[in-house]
C-alpha cells in the first residue's frame, strides 16, 4: 500500500515486537471491564418467586459521570486498530491476501468462543434437567451472553480492516469523516427506523478503529498541549450534546446500540493514550508489570469471554441457596463485591488452564494452503448469524446451542492458518512498511 499520508517513512519494514503502552492499555481495559461487571450484576429473588437481574450501578444517577470517565470500550477498538493495521501490512508484505487476514481473525476469536457456548449450553441444559427454575436458567443465559455483542462488533470492525486500510492509505481523513457521517446519519434516523440504530455496530466501531490507524501511522504525534486540547475539546462537544439532550449522559445506555458519543469518547481516549504513552512504557518496563502483561496478554480473550458467565453462575448458585442477599447498592452489597471479584479470579485460573490455549494461533505446517475466499466468506456469515441475533434480541439456551454449532461449522470451513515465509527479494512481496511510531504486537 503506497501513497497517502499514512504511508510516511523510508520503506523499511516494521518489527513485530510488542508495544508495552498498547499492552498496558488493553490490560487496564480488561481489568476495568471485569471489575465493572462485578459492580453491576445483582440478581434479585422477589417474594412472588420471580427472578430478575438489576444493573445496580447503571441505575443510579451518580454513576453516570463515573461511566463517562471509565467507559473504556472505545479504547479497546483504538488498540485493535493499531495492532490490526500492522498485522495486515505485515501479511501483505509477505504476499498475504485479505481472505487470509479474515481467516486468521475469525479463527482467533471463534475458537475460544465456540467452546464457551458449548459449555454454557451443556451446563444450562443440565441445570434444567436437574429441576432448576427456568427463570434462573434464562437469567444465567442472558446475563452470560452479554460479552457477545463485543464479539460481533469487534469482528465486524476487524473483518472490514483490509479495505478500510486501503481507503486510509489513500485518504485517511476523508475515510474517517465518511464513517463519522454515516454514524450521525444513523443517529438522526434511528427515531423513525429504530432497527437502523444497529447499523452503528459497524459504522461506529469501524470509525473508532480508524483512530487506531492514525495512532499507528504517527498522525496523532502531537505535542502535549495539542493532545490535551483534543481531550478537552472532544469532551466539551460530548457535554454539549448531552446538555442539549441530543444523547443520554449515561454511557451504558449509549453503548448498545452505539452512537456518536462513543466516537467522541474514543477521540479523547486515543489522545490520552498518546499523551500518557511515555509513562505507560516506563510502567510496563517494571518487572512485575511486565510479567502480568505477558501472562494476561496471551489469554485476554478467554478472560473476557468467561468472566461474565462465571459471575452469572455464582449469582445463580446464590439464588438457589435461597440466602438473603443484600439489597443492591447497600453497604452490605458493597462489602460483598471484593469477595465476588476474588471468587471470579480464582475460578478463572482453571478455565485459563483448560481453554486458554485455544487463543494460540492455529497454524498448518508446510507451504501456504489458504481456504478459498468463498469458504471464508461463508464462515463469516455463519458466525454472524447467532452473534447478531444474540446482540440484538438477547441470548437464550437454544441460541447457545445453535451458536456453538455455527461456530464449529465455521471452524471446519476455515481450517488452520497457513504459515507464510517472507518472499525473496530486497523488499519481499507486497508493499513496504513505514517505520512505525508504535511497534504494536502483530496479531495473527
Structure description:
- The chain is built from 16 helices and four strands.
- The chain is mostly helical and 444 residues long.
- A hairpin with a 5-residue loop joins strand 1 (41-45) and strand 2 (51-55).
- Helix 1 packs across helix 11 (260-284).
- The chain is globular, with a radius of gyration of 22 Å.
- The two termini are 19 Å apart.
Write the layout of secondary structure elements.
Layout: H1 20-38, E1 41-45, E2 51-55, H2 64-70, H3 73-93, H4 98-129, H5 134-144, H6 148-159, H7 161-170, H8 172-189, H9 200-217, H10 224-243, H11 260-284, H12 287-297, H13 300-321, H14 331-355, E3 363-364, H15 373-393, H16 397-414, E4 417-418
Helix pairs in contact: 1-3, 1-11, 1-12, 1-13, 3-9, 3-11, 4-5, 4-6, 4-13, 4-15, 4-16, 5-13, 6-9, 6-15, 7-8, 8-9, 9-11, 10-11, 13-14, 15-16
**Series of secondary-structure elements, N-terminal to C-terminal:** HEEHHHHHHHHHHHHHEHHE
Strand content: under 5%
Distance between the ends: 19 Å
Q: Radius of gyration, rounded?
A: 22 Å
Characterize the largest beta sheet: strand count, sense, and whether it forms a barrel. 2 strands, antiparallel
Low-confidence stretches: 1-16, 424-444
Number of strands: 4
Which structural category do the helix and sheet elements fall into?
mainly alpha
Bulk shape: globular
Mean pLDDT across all amino acids: 82
Biggest sheet strand line-up: 1-2
Helix content: 55-70%
Please report the number of helical segments: 16
Amino acid at each position: 500500500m503506497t501513497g497517502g499520508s499514512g504511508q510516511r517513512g523510508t520503506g523499511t519494514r516494521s518489527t513485530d515486537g510488542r508495544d508495552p503502552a498498547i499492552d498496558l492499555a488493553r490490560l487496564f481495559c480488561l481489568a476495568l471491564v471485569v471489575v465493572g461487571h462485578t459492580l453491576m450484576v445483582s440478581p434479585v429473588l422477589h417474594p412472588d418467586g420471580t427472578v430478575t437481574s438489576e444493573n445496580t450501578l447503571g441505575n443510579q444517577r451518580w454513576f453516570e459521570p463515573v461511566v463517562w470517565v471509565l467507559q473504556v470500550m472505545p479504547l479497546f477498538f483504538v488498540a485493535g486498530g493499531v495492532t490490526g493495521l500492522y498485522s495486515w501490512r505485515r501479511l501483505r508484505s509477505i504476499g498475504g491476501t485479505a481472505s487470509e487476514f479474515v481467516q486468521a481473525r475469525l479463527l482467533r476469536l471463534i475458537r475460544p468462543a465456540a467452546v464457551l457456548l458449548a459449555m454454557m449450553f451443556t451446563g444450562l441444559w443440565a441445570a434444567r434437567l436437574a429441576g432448576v427454575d427456568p427463570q434462573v436458567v434464562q437469567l444465567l443465559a442472558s446475563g452470560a451472553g452479554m460479552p457477545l455483542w463485543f464479539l460481533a462488533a469487534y469482528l465486524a470492525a476487524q473483518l472490514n480492516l483490509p479495505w478500510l486500510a486501503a481507503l486510509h492509505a489513500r485518504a485517511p481523513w476523508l475515510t474517517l469523516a465518511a464513517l463519522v457521517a454515516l454514524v450521525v446519519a444513523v443517529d438522526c434516523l434511528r427515531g423513525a427506523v429504530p432497527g437502523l440504530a444497529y447499523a452503528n455496530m459497524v459504522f461506529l466501531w469501524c470509525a473508532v478503529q480508524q483512530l487506531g490507524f492514525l495512532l499507528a501511522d504517527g498522525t496523532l504525534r502531537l505535542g502535549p498541549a495539542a493532545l490535551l486540547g483534543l481531550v478537552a475539546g472532544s469532551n466539551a462537544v460530548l457535554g454539549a450534546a448531552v446538555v442539549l439532550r441530543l444523547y443520554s449522559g449515561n454511557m451504558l445506555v449509549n453503548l448498545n446500540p452505539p452512537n456518536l458519543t462513543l466516537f467522541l469518547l474514543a477521540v479523547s481516549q486515543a489522545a490520552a493514550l498518546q499523551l500518557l504513552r511515555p509513562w505507560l512504557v516506563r510502567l510496563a518496563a517494571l518487572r512485575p508489570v511486565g510479567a502480568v502483561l505477558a501472562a494476561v496478554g496471551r489469554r485476554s480473550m478467554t478472560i473476557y469471554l468467561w468472566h461474565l458467565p462465571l459471575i452469572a453462575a455464582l449469582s445463580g448458585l446464590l439464588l438457589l441457596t435461597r440466602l438473603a442477599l443484600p439489597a443492591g447498592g447497600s453497604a452490605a452489597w458493597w462489602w460483598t463485591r471484593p469477595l465476588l471479584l476474588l471468587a471470579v479470579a480464582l475460578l478463572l485460573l482453571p478455565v485459563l488452564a483448560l481453554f486458554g490455549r485455544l487463543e494460540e494461533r492455529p497454524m498448518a505446517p508446510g507451504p501456504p494452503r489458504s481456504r478459498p475466499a468463498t469458504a471464508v466468506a461463508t464462515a463469516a456469515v455463519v458466525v454472524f448469524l447467532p452473534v447478531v441475533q444474540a446482540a440484538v434480541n438477547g441470548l437464550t439456551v437454544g441460541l447457545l446451542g445453535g451458536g456453538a454449532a455455527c461456530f464449529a461449522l465455521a471452524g471446519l470451513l476455515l481450517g488452520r492458518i497457513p504459515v507464510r515465509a517472507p518472499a525473496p527479494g530486497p523488499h519481499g512481496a507486497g508493499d513496504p512498511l513505514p517505520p512505525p511510531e508504535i511497534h504494536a504486537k502483530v496479531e495473527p
